[in-house]
Amino acid sequence: VQVETLLEVNNIEVIYNHVILVLKGVSLSVPKGGITALLGGNGAGKTTTLKAISNLLHSERGEVTKGSVKYRGETIHELDPAALVKKGVIQVMEGRHCFEHLTVEENLLTGYYTRSSGKADMMRDLEMVYNYFPRLKERRKSQAGYTSGGEQQMVAIGRALMSKPETILLDEPSMGLAPQLVEEIFEIVRDLNEKEGVSFLLAEQNTNVALRFAHYGYILESGRVVMDGPAADLRENPDVKEFYLGMS
Ligand code: ATP
């Protein structure tokens, strides 16, 4: 069966402040309907890769100096976030980034801004989000800044879902969360993938959990992809076991 490729990152180089070469030719692809993991330790370049895809490097004085990023064959790394969302791609940033002073529900509704269909659609999508995140429904009137870290991660993903994305770029969803919550979040990601058909590119330091839920993985070290393969193969790979899964 021919699987359709959505996102194609081809040999990108990223430089910060005109001098610091951080990505040294990264290539990866994200197929439709897959969960693709981008793995690697602290500072390997995962966040930089996601930001290069979604054109979020400028504010950090970073730029893509080589290579290309294509979505369904079109160059996208120069689009602004709203244009990218219209193409079906949205990034959930590391560190969750809720509007702390808005309620949970208001936060979710801000995710709807790029769409032009009516209120009925909006309410239906909100129900869809609550269906995946029943906890957010319980807390919908709470001020987001006062919810737990796990709930804020859910808000961030839920808000992204409100834009009806085809692909979510998810940065380090496990960060700072207790293992049980990490599990809960990844199960929801899997559900969204299977039931809503959302494709994911997911940056994670937690190789163990990511390789259990992803279909395919890329391992980054110092700005280069050093290994890639089906998640099941990576899990069995002796080097991955030794260096990333802490088993030897
Ligand atoms: P983390 O898990 O810590 O987010 P990461 O794999 O996502 O790690 P990046 O955040 O992409 O890594 O960082 C890759 C490298 O780029 C690191 O060495 C980091 O210090 C450097 N870097 C990141 N942002 C900047 C910046 N704005 N200016 C200069 N260097 C930066």
TrEMBL record:
Biological processes per GO annotation: L-amino acid transport
GO molecular function: ATP binding; ATP hydrolysis activity; branched-chain amino acid transmembrane transporter activity
InterPro entries: AAA+_ATPase, ABC_transporter-like_ATP-bd, BCAA_Transport_ATP-bd_LivF, P-loop_NTPase
All residue ranges annotated as the ABC transporter domain in the record: 7-247
SMART domains xref list: AAA (SM00382)
Domain of life: Bacteria
SUPFAM superfamilies associated with the record: P-loop containing nucleoside triphosphate hydrolases
Keywords for the protein's UniProt record, in alphabetical order: Amino-acid transport, ATP-binding, Nucleotide-binding, Transport
Pfam families per record: ABC_tran
Similarity comment: family membership: Belongs to the ABC transporter superfamily.
Name of protein: Amino acid/amide ABC transporter ATP-binding protein 2, HAAT family
Protein's organism: Ruegeria marina
